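Students often ask why we bother encoding 3D structure as a string. The short answer is that it lets us treat folding as translation between two languages. Here is a chain of 218 residues written in the first language.
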Amino acid sequence: MRIVLVGPPGAGKGTQAAFLAKNLSIPHISTGDLFRANISQGTELGKQAKSYMDAGNLVPDEVTIGMAEDRMAQPDAANGFLLDGFPRNVSQAKALDESLKAQGVALDAVLDLEVPEDEVVKRIAGRRICRNDSSHVFHVEYSKPKTEGVCDVCGGELYQRADDKEETVRKRLEVYHNETEPIIDHYKAQGLVVTISALGKVDEVTARAMAALGADQK
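And here it is in the second language, the structure alphabet:
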């Protein structure tokens, strides 16, 4: 099964992608992982991406597309994949269409995780991270520490990252609406979009997604 996962920041795409990929026995291909792998391995595309990133510029679509095409050509993706964070705009979506068409394959579905904007802001702006270990994550409403501002695990100080502040979250949502959301209409025209609510517990959303994709959950 070949799937594209879309949704606003804070929709839980990364979490759902990992569970769905495991349930469907396909690789989870995220843009972040592509960039890290290519840069760490020193590939030509990685070098190009790093030069743009070091200069504080956005990586051009053709570089991102090249990385995605290389990854989708790997043996473990022969029977399908789940794309997370790519395509990010209509130009990338059209390039993906052409790439898959050239291989004689096509997407099976575009899974759209729907979350109300106010909930997105609440989810992200409420996050608090431990200064000692960023894997220790709490939330002022959904996962409160026993003592306010103190990590339950190591006693470190909890803080709000700059990109989690409400003003920044709303700017990220604006970018999503302007750049990424239009790909949903692009794929709706192809009859590929399956929209589900991303509200509720993680396992509930996963079950909802698997049902929408017509797949059995392991």
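Translate back mentally: The first helix runs from residue 13 to 24. Keep this in mind for the problem set.
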